[in-house]
Amino acid sequence: xxxxxxxxxxxxxxxxxxxxxxxxxxxxxxxxxxxxxxxxxxxxxxxxxxxxxxxxxxxxxxxxxxxxxxxxxxxxxxxxxxxxxxxxxxxxxxxxxxxxxxxxxxxxxxxxxxxxxxxxxxxxxxxxxxxxxxxxxxxxxxxxxxxxxxxxxxxxxxxxxxxxxxxxxxxxxxxxxxxxxxxxxxxxxxxxxxxxxxxxxxxxxxxxxxxxxxxxxxxxxxxxxxxxxxxxxxxxxxxxxxxxxxxxxxxxxxxxxxxxxxxxxxxxxxxxxxxxxxxxxxxxxxxxxxxxxxxxxxxxxxxxxxxxxxxxxxxxxxxxxxxxxxxxxxxxxxxxxxxxxxxxxxxxxxxxxxxxxxxxxxxxxxxxxxxxxxxxxxxxxxxxxxxxxxxxxxxxxxxxxxxxxxxxxxxxxxxxxxxxxxxxxxxxxxxxxxxxxxxxxxxxxxxxxxxxxxxxxxxxxxxxxxxxxxxxxxxxxxxxxxxxxxxxxxxxxxxxxxxxxxxxxxxxxxxxxxxxxxxxxxxxxxxxxxxxxxxxxxxxxxxxxxxxxxxxxxxxxxxxxxxxxxxxxxxxxxxxxxxxxxxxxxxxxxxxxxxxxxxxxxxxxxxxxxxxxxxxxxxxxxxxxxxxxxxxxxxxxxxxxxxxxxxxxxxxxxxxxxxxxxxxxxxxxxxxxxxxxxxxxxxxxxxxxxxxxxxxxxxxxxxxxxxxxxxxxxxxxxxxxxxxxxxxxxxxxxxxxxxxx
Length: 741
Description:
Strand order of the largest sheet: 7-8-9-29-30-31-32-33
Pfam families: PK
Radius of gyration: 32 Å
Organism: Hibiscus trionum
Strand content: 15-25%
Region (Disordered): 56-78
Protein name: pyruvate kinase
Number of strands: 33
Family: Belongs to the pyruvate kinase family.
Largest sheet: 8 strands, parallel, barrel
Shape: elongated
């Protein structure tokens, strides 16, 4: 089946539609001259020879979000923006008619022999009437939508009406004559159906060449003027989708095709240059998760974003996600504040490279970007940095009481002072309060004290077959406690929702599905879980890790009390607010009411689809959100989504979200685990690269934080904006010239 991406206008003089107000509506379309187009090759028999003709009557790639990757060279700016250099409608009509006239009647005979045009036309008209009827059935809902979203809401209703029909036989018939792909019309459903009907009516004529009246009628200026009045023209709806994307995410810079969003947290404050480096690498949106950090750290991150954006003259938006009603493990009891300094050893235990330790004052900031120390120690005494020299050896007693040494190898001048790189050939455990001294001529000279060593991350390691007890609080002396079970691990979760709804036999998952278990018993204060899936050597389960109960019908409040407190900060500092774990239209109503109280009509709203309920109710969520004028977007949050809906369904689910959002002309953000191996370890997997290629269908792609985040942003930017023309030229050079037309 041929894939088509462009449409030439056809005769609309014979086909008029009545809208719900009783007015005549014409549903024309036009083609931007810069749009990438494929054409149908036809082989009419002229005389005794076969002559290759090309008739450009293809249906547009209506699915801007979900189909863009199939034509990567054609950007949104190229497709959606009007231009003086574009063909006018009359040009398109004349070109289409001339092409049809030249091709002769043979092409129509071929089509008639392939399918029953009369039957196909009747089926297409029936679908068309069903789509129109759906709009009338939902008239009361559409009236509540804001005027800015009225056309988009109607098109969404049209798309849903099309999707509820069994149109597989119709799709096959349309594919046989290369007229229309019903999987690709979501951007402009009614206009695409209307134009296809008109083209089929023209195809019923035996010969365009012998019927000059038809061509004259097609090209009359009166009919062209009528087309310009249509609200559902394909180019009009494309511009609407483009406008909605720009209102939410901001304009794209240069020739870029997608926005890049990067998540940052408090670690961004450890480096003065990280945010600037992210923007240089291609980041155009910074995301802050309100589930972590505090208003103090958020404010400083935003200050640095705005400063870097202004200095680099590169616009950068701010998205702040409300934490939402997510079930998480509570904080585990922290481990001791100790850092391990360990050199690299070979298989026999011999040191092959000493441990690299960065020493600086706590106010001096992070080490230079080109350094990768194994440990960072802060020294409280400024004299240390003025009296210590390269080559000297620092001595200390580590947390185990063993004598250790650090040899100063290099000195660096950083933004707020001086830092040293030291080496250690032995494994040491350093804690806060340890004194460093230098031995000179039989005397010891104290030079500083180690301070602010962070606590080590606490976790438990669970294995298949282990019992895990989830408590409502940290105490273990409840009457019905299952904690007395020998060998059971224990964690806490303070959310009462979990204990109120789960039942024995239901599944439960932790940490985005890394650990799975089955609930064996419940009480008011505890839940006993038998672990059924974990790593071969066990899997770590730490603080603030997600808990999912896909088999339970949990009734969460959509916007929590914490969200309302955070919303005060978000509304005054961010460009967009992310609604986490949206499940029902009530969640949208509560948020809209809060924004209306604050008179915030320009704050962008991003619906994060990460639950089964949110996915199944996406059309209703969009229609509810369209009742306000706020810019609107959708995020495919793939962390919890496959855990809730099933891993094997993820690909289909994300495609469906792209299609539904495309029909509503709403931009989509593709999120979670994008280039995760590259972000964490510096090397991507092959599957991650192809995932990014699929993600090009979305308006924005999000990266999570990690050690190699700047490199990952740069790589993502290169993939998204790669020179596809050069690639096509390289492939073309491999094809024998005799096969090229």
